[in-house]
Amino acid sequence: MIDPRQPLAVHHVLWLLLSLALITTPHAARLPWWIVALVVTLGAWRAYIAHGRHALPNRWLLFLVVIVATIGIYLNYRTIFGRDAGVALLVVMLGLKLLEMRSLRDAMLLIFLGYFLVITNFLYSQTILSGIYMLGCVWIITATMMSLNYGREEPPFGTQLRIGAVLLAQSVPLMLVLFLLFPRISGPLWGLPQDAYSGVSGLSDTMAPGTLSNLTLSDAVAFRVRFDSEIPPAKSRYWRGPVMWDFDGQAWSTSRFIYGTPQFRKTGEPTSYEVTLEPHNKRWLFALDLPARAVPHSATGADFQMRSFSPVNNRMRYEMASFLDYSYGTDENSMALRRALQLPTGFNPRAIELGRTLRGKFSDDRMLVREVLAMFRKQNFFYTLAPPLLGRHSVDEFMFNTRRGFCEHYASAFAVVMRAAGIPARIVTGYLGGEVNELGDYLIVRQADAHAWTEVWFSDVGWVRVDPTAAVSPLRVEAGISAAIPRSEPLPVLVRGDFEALRQLRFTWDLMANTWNQWVLGYTPERQRRLLIGMGIEDSTWYTLTVIMLALAGFIVVILATLMLRRLKTRTRDPVRKAYSQFCDKLRRRGLPRAANEGPVDYAHRLERVRPDLALPVGAITRLYVMLRYGAETSTAALEELRQRVRHFSA
Amino acid sequence: MYAALRDHFQHWLFQLRGPQTGVIVLVQRRIFVLPSRHGLMFSAMLMLMLTGSINYNLSLGFILTFLLGSMGVSTIIYTFRNLANLRIAGGRARPVFAGDTAHFIVHLENPGEMPRYAVNLTHDKREWVTVDIPARATVAAAAAVPARRRGLLKPGRLTLFTRYPLGLVYAWAYLELDLRCVVYPRPASPALPLPLPAISAGTSGERGKGQEDFSGMRQYHVGDSPRHIAWKLAARDQGLLTKQFSGHADAELWLDWSLLPAALGTEEKLSHLARWVIDAHESGLSFGLRLPGKTVELENGDAQRERCLEALALYDPAVARE
User: Fold this and answer.
1) Quick check: is A539 in a domain?
2) pLDDT tens per residue, range B8-31
3) Is some CB atom of chain A closer than 8 A to the CB atom of B28?
4) ipTM score
């Protein structure tokens, strides 16, 4: 082995550099450019030093770089703690430690840092692909560690890789036991830094022109749904999200939460399903109109908006049921209705004027609604992902000038006109539609399916959903976003889904991703408990889990040790030798071992001198042995005699 | 008191039983396994990773942590297996002069089907030799022990250790082999001139080794005159060889303890005698050695040199006085 103080060999340094580079590469996209440049420079410098056997740089220089880089990171992130700044700091320290790496001890520290950096990658991405990539990194760095510890003339790196693979593969059974049975607790041990979950997309709590059309450019999955029975048709798949009551002339926003017991009348049986919601860092939970169940650790408001008690930071699974035929809100309280009529003064005068004119023309609310929708349909309105920018009077400009808009424009304009006409109206954002994965028989709802519609209140039936987008572009409701948007506009490829083969591939991939999410990433305390119940353990406490885990782990270690320690002795298959070594063993136990350099005949002579009483059996056995082993004798009778004699021999 | 207690504890724990003749088989209770310093660092890192995984609820973090933890457990078995069931026998150690380093040969036999990698043999844990032992093979490793004083050097406890494969676990076995090495007294320098040989009629005509005629080559021994080394061959990487010459060994040379100045101490006298033996051997003379209580009869050649040096090495003043 290597002396821990001895300088490192060149190829060790290079392998270490390579494995650390592989591990850090995914971070490069997330780090500021100057850190990437700095660390690449440091790595290249170290490779140059190793290659040319130059001296390492002065410690004071490195110290200076540490100070400057730390200040730089502070200026960049406004903190040196937290996830992003922490990773940046760790990467810089790794680069600097490279230039301080003199001996095995330093190299081992870097390897441990490398393992730790692998886990920081999982803070950003835990997909199948990143899992496989990181497994590869772990493999290479483990082989590097083996190579480092071997010494100067180790076998080629290929051999180290092979042994490393065997080592990792042998560790899998024990890893599975620990993964499945290690007592899981939900929730963090301490407060997470602010940026722990940043960088996820989803619906926000305000809606201005452009909010949803931007979201539509993302093909990220919002949630997946598995229905207990048949998947409802596209036009009933309105996934209810944030409900917006307040309009400030530009943007709609959610109210402070209106608690209350929602009253509703339903017809028909509820549709049951399970939602697996991707983390979106907000509190919204989504359900089909109209949610009929409550989700644990969440509350449902009087406007049927479901909010979790804490932001959805991790993938979340909940059971849900919805009534697709319903009516509710006839008893809506007057405060809420007044709120649903409010309009800011000084904005959108023409739209308000239109509303008032219509009110004069139509006394029936339903007629009025129909009239506005007809206006959208008949006049030259156009549904597009890329509407022109709008100024201060956004609704006016949209309705009377540009007439090109996305769902949020239509919903907003419609709600403003309704309110001006004295009909309570509010905006509901959420998702519409979703794509059925035939392979896995579940529904994928993407951010691209984001949608906004309105609800208006009629005194006899309560709140009624009106989707003004449907008036402009019926395809959006019937066939989804990709059918409704002209081909020339930039929708993500995944959302378009043109080619059949590509679609199949995509569905297969999504099915794998979903399974991975459900069983690997979504392995929660709840799932653990259910697994144990399946194994017949009803009351899985922390204590029983630990006992079972340790027992199983011990069992696996024993099996592993037995398998691995199997081939340490040469088995004597030759029956003659076996019999003779039994004979020698018997004598050894009596304190008369055969010396390593002693032939059978010499041994027998010595025994005869030391123990004359044994002379007869020893002589016979030795003669037989010599005959069978070195002589021409091969008969089974002779072998049998030797065996018999050895069996009856006692010293 | 503390040292005595510790010794006692070590003897009990490590089953130290004193030197053993014959083959030592590294059965399970002879091998000790502990995490190395790097192993402790590794476990600390795993704890950190586990805490991070719990806190951020990272499923892949759990998988990685548990995978590495299981790998750590597997390496315990690997490291243990790397030493398990080796058969170890002491070999010969070539005599050295005091002040040089004695190399004790230890034969490591791997009777199994698994090759053993990076097995280290050490005496003082500061320096060691590393060997690989292929399956069903025997490999010799030499433990270097400094020979400080003349006499019979017993290395005492040797340690066979390994950190294979990842350096996280340290497995070792104490080897108490019955090894010994003769340490000759260091030849004095500067030397006193050789005593005058007595011309003996009875031995004239006997052929011995001298300096006149070249008679062959032999392996270099410490103490051979540099003038007789075959440098041309050495330059061709054929190792150090000493040229030998035959000549008439007419003279009888007695290297006598009593010829040395009385002012010298015992060790100094032995040292000068050693120098004389080497010089006499080099000049191809027949020589004998007289020590208090011990006499080596007249003879010449390599065997005589060794005999005389060994007598000097093992000279015991207490026995001589009786």
Assistant:
1) no
2) 777 777 766 667 667 888 888 889
3) no
4) 0.75
